[in-house]
Amino acid sequence: MSGLGNGMIANRRKNERRECRRGAKIQFGVGSLPRDCMITDISAGGVKVVAEHLEVPPEFTIIFSSGGPRQCRLAWRIGYEFGAEFVD
């Protein structure tokens, strides 16, 4: 019986992700206050974020300490962790 190897599952992303531990802000709409979050990995196409917010909307802005804001779309969420793709 042949199954998928771990390499095939781990390599489904279009862009290579780099682990990091970088503080950032997340903003849920124009006029809302940015809240703290932690970027735990990043690629050219998106980020993995840890944030203790109850509701993460389908689209939001991540504000990096260097590099400025990026528009994001929620891709998945498990507990306090979620993945987002850049849409800008």
Structural summary, described in words:
The protein has one domain (15-86): predicted glycosyltransferase like domains (Thrombin, subunit H, Beta Barrel). With 88 residues, the protein is mainly β. The protein has one helix at residues 6-10; strands spanning 18-27, 35-42, 46-50, 59-64, 68-78, 81-86. A six-stranded antiparallel beta barrel has the order 1-2-3-6-5-4. The protein has one helix and six strands; from the N terminus they run αββββββ.
Topology (elements, then pairings):
Elements: H1 6-10, E1 18-27, E2 35-42, E3 46-50, E4 59-64, E5 68-78, E6 81-86
Antiparallel strand pairs: 1-2, 1-4, 2-3, 3-6, 4-5, 5-6
Helix content: under 10%
Strand content: over 45%
What is the molecular shape?
Answer: globular
Secondary-structure-derived class: mainly beta
Q: What is the string of SSEs from the N terminus onward?
A: HEEEEEE
**Overall CATH architecture:** Beta Barrel
- Average pLDDT, to the nearest integer? 84
Reported for the largest beta sheet, the result is:
6 strands, antiparallel, barrel
CATH-assigned fold name: Thrombin, subunit H
**Overall domain count:** 1
Number of strands: 6
How far apart the termini lie comes to 43 Å
The CATH class, by name, is Mainly Beta
CA-atom Rg in angstroms: 14 Å
The number of helices is: 1
Name given to the CATH homologous superfamily: predicted glycosyltransferase like domains
Uncertain runs are 1-11
Strand order of the largest sheet: 1-2-3-6-5-4
